[in-house]
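User: Please predict the structure of the protein below. I'd like the answer in C-alpha cell form so I can feed it into my own downstream comparison script.

Assistant: Understood. Taking the following sequence of 94 residues as input:
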Amino acid sequence: MNSQEKQGYIDEINYQKKMIHNLIKWLRNLFFLSSLGVLLMYYFSNILFVKIFAIILIIISILAIILVGKAIYSGKKNINKIVDQFSFKYKNSL
C-alpha cells in the first residue's frame, strides 16, 4: 500500500465522519421542530389552523428523524467497513 492510497483512505474516513456530524446537526434541528409542533399543539389547540399545522409539522419531523437516523446508522456502518478494509490492506502490505 503506497502513501497516496493510505492518504485516500484517511481522507475518505474523515469526510464521512464530517458528513455524519452534519447529519447529527440535522437530527438535533428536527427534534427541535417536532418539539415546536408539540408546543403549538399544546398552547394553541383551540385554533384549528394552528392545530392542523402542528400535527403536520410533528408528522413530517418524525418521518425525517427516522430517515436521518437511518442515514447516520448506515454511515457509521460504512465507516467501519472502510476502516476494516483499510486495516486488512495495511496488514497485508507489511
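That's the full C-alpha cell string. The helical segments are 3-43, 48-93.
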